[in-house]
Amino acid sequence: MSLCIVWLRHDLRLADNPLFAFDRMPENLVCLHVLDRQWLSPTPALGVPRVGPARLKFIWQSLMALRGELLKRGSDLLIRVGDPVDEVASLAECHGASEIRVRRDAGHDEMRDVRTLRTRLDGRIRLSEHDSGTLFDTLTLPVDVESLPPTFSAFRRRAERNGSINDPLLAPVTLPPWPDAVSRGLPALRGVCQYAAAWKTDPRGQFHFEGGEAAGHERLEHVLWQSRLAMRYKQTRNRLLGADFSTRLSAWLAHGCLSARQVHQAVRQWEAEHGPNESSYWIIFELLWRDYFHWAARQEGSGLFGRRELPTADATFRCWAEGRTGVPFIDAAMHELAATGWLSNRARQNVASYFVKDLGGDWRLGAAWFEHCLVDFDVASNWGNWRYVAGVGRDTRDRWFHVLRQAEQYDPWGRYVTHWQPSLRALPAGRARHQPWRVDPDRYPPPIMIPKAWEDRLLAIHEAVEPDE
Ligand SMILES: Cc1cc2nc3c(=O)[nH]c(=O)nc-3n(C[C@H](O)[C@H](O)[C@H](O)COP(=O)(O)OP(=O)(O)OC[C@H]3O[C@@H](n4cnc5c(N)ncnc54)[C@H](O)[C@@H]3O)c2cc1C
């Protein structure tokens, strides 16, 4: 009796999932997801778990939805909380599995787990890894992973010239039965984590993320066919307020409820009906960024996280993370992040730049805080973007964001800052709402986190830009 274990990690879907594309159907199948206990415990550096409540709840919803789909096809899902390698190995050994299938993930921990599992199994059980979730796979990628270009532009040019993107795979119609000897079922979310069970996204975020494959497809459908974002994405993607200025597909992509190839195919279908335009092109362009960070992470392994030990969070970090820097644009974004688990790309770039370039913070602390907060955390995109903004790693160009100018450009009336900090509504609409020295000293106990070097910059900015009162 052949038993296959499909070990699902960041690929919580049935369609376009090569783990379910068997050359020869096994007689029995077990689908397993392991929540890494370590990721649910506070880290020494920040004192919070790597997986925060917004993401854990989304993952949970995705697992519930996946279980429903698996049950419909004659299978089921087993969820364990523990050490992934121990859980997978003991299940496989105990029930005499013949094969374990797993996605080839970009994260260093995920790669290490597969290596450790392989050593532990010592060739007794076949362990196969499969590319999944990205636009390209190792066969269609236009370059070798080892010789990935150091810049995105060079990668994009090659991808657009020579890369081919396969059509997504269909979901399996039926699946092999669950073996009688293997228990099924899942613990309750409340038992796993009280704070995730109680997590409710702040309605000021104007959007509700609901995990699962069907919810992901619903969002994709909405974005392309109802909101017609592909007509205007290039113009709206840098906005800060609203549900439909960007796709918001990141959470479903990060947990594999959707694959990038599915999004790519849906955009191409939309283009076939409406004709391609710069906005539809730009959605694919952003997916190429995602692929680039994925392949870069695969190439770099542990190098992605920097070489030194992560320092412990200090007062500067706390002010930034809690949205108490005294710079309204930055604080608004940090409030939004904590309250909703999501931030627009524009806001992410600004708060990252401010933390690293202006406050002199260690970029890895910032990345670790994002990792805790984000509903759409994806190891390659998060740590890759942080390195990119910090100017470390593969591309060391200086990318300082002038956050006051950015605030004035992207939030000219101060609607975003007042949305997240209503006390600023007392100030006249416009520039006045972005000025650091206007903040209420009772709400921002000294020292306000305006860096020394900034005082000169601020003076220069405010000499050039008169407050509009
Ligand atoms: C410091 C920092 C940290 C980030 N951390 C993450 C993260 O953990 N997870 C994550 O998915 N994205 C991350 N991003 C990238 C980007 O901000 C988000 O993907 C995007 O804001 C998600 O919103 P959206 O789905 O509406 O994106 P859209 O603008 O609609 O873009 C469509 C899709 O393209 C991909 N994408 C867009 N921009 C980027 C980018 N710069 N890098 C990689 N992929 C991109 C995403 O999958 C996104 O869903 C980070 C960016 C920065 C600057």
Description:
By secondary structure, this protein is of the alpha/beta class. Helices cover 45% and strands 6% of the residues. The chain has a 5-stranded parallel sheet, covered by helices on one side. It starts with a strand and ends in a 5-residue tail after the last helix. The model is unreliable at 459-469 (pLDDT under 50).
Main sheet strand line-up: 3-2-1-4-5
Q: How helix-rich are the residues, as a percent range?
A: 40-55%
Q: What is the approximate shape?
A: globular
The end-to-end span amounts to: 79 Å
Class of secondary structure makeup: alpha/beta
Sheet with the most strands, sense and barrel status: 5 strands, parallel
CATH class of the largest domain reads: Mainly Alpha
* Number of helices, where a helix is a run of at least 4 consecutive DSSP H or I residues: 19
| Average pLDDT taken over every residue | 91
Low-confidence stretches: 459-469
**Ligand set:** flavin-adenine dinucleotide
User: In CATH terms, what is the fold-level topology of the largest domain?
Assistant: DNA Cyclobutane Dipyrimidine Photolyase, subunit A, domain 3
Query: How many distinct beta strands?
Result: 5
Note the beta-strand portion: 5-15%
Topology as a string of helices (H) and strands (E): EEHEHEHEHHHHHHHHHHHHHHHH
* Domain count: 3
Name of the CATH superfamily of the largest domain: DNA Cyclobutane Dipyrimidine Photolyase, subunit A, domain 3
Give me the Rg, rounded.
Answer: 23 Å
Give structural attributes:
469 residues; alpha/beta; Rossmann fold; Serine Threonine Protein Phosphatase 5, Tetratricopeptide repeat; DNA Cyclobutane Dipyrimidine Photolyase, subunit A, domain 3; five-stranded parallel β-sheet; 19 helices; globular; disordered C terminus; binds flavin-adenine dinucleotide
